[in-house]
Amino acid sequence: MAQTVLGSALILIAVAIAGISYYAALTPVGVGISAFFQEGAPGAGGGIDSSKAATASRVATAISRAESSTGSQFPLVRSFSAAKDMSLIGVGVRKKAIINVYSVGIYGAKQVVRVVEAKAGEYARCHAIVEKNLKTSRAALLKFNMAVTAEKMADAMSAVEGPSQEIKDTFTAMLVKGIGGKLTKGEEMTFEWKGTNTVVLTARGVSIGEIKDKALFQGLLEIYLGENSVSPSLKKDIAAFTSSK
């Protein structure tokens, strides 16, 4: 009888040792075996997975900025048709009554960043970006928070001041044709300023045309950065801009 009890005890000890060895083999280096029996164990949707998610979030934050009203993310550096590796200078939102129609980010080449940082205050900084003698590329990246038809977008942009009616008609027709129906939530378009007189348009990452006209060039800059900006929050954000050198 004693031999039977002793034999059973030895079997139980052997099973326990085998179980511990099995879990030890599965456990990543530096993680205790007890981690498998705790909330947050690997593969249980807890601590390690959450840590990875937090790390990914920090990386995303380091390479982009969110517009506060919409949460839309804008990369700190982005290439456009007009120029490569332009820096984000400010973000804002275009509101219609209480509705956030789209968020917008203004980008500039190195020379733009330098002239903006040399100024202080909302007016001085925005005026520096609009400056007629600034011979370098700028861009506005629009991220839509709701569906907007091509006709409504063209109608809104037809309010641009300065260009002739013929140029306005050409510009709005280009928008309608290039957008093709409507821009839906999450889609993007850009207005890009190249040199001192060329406006480049893209929708959904595809170029839809360009127009060379100094008055249109300046008028579009004024829509976003002028006295009657469609996005006051954008101008305020530019006033607080500091480049990440």
Automatic annotation (TrEMBL):
Top-rank taxon: Eukaryota
Protein name in UniProt: Chalcone isomerase domain-containing protein
GO molecular function term, any single one: intramolecular lyase activity
One Pfam family here: Chalcone_3
Native organism: Odontella aurita
Location of the Chalcone isomerase domain: 82-237
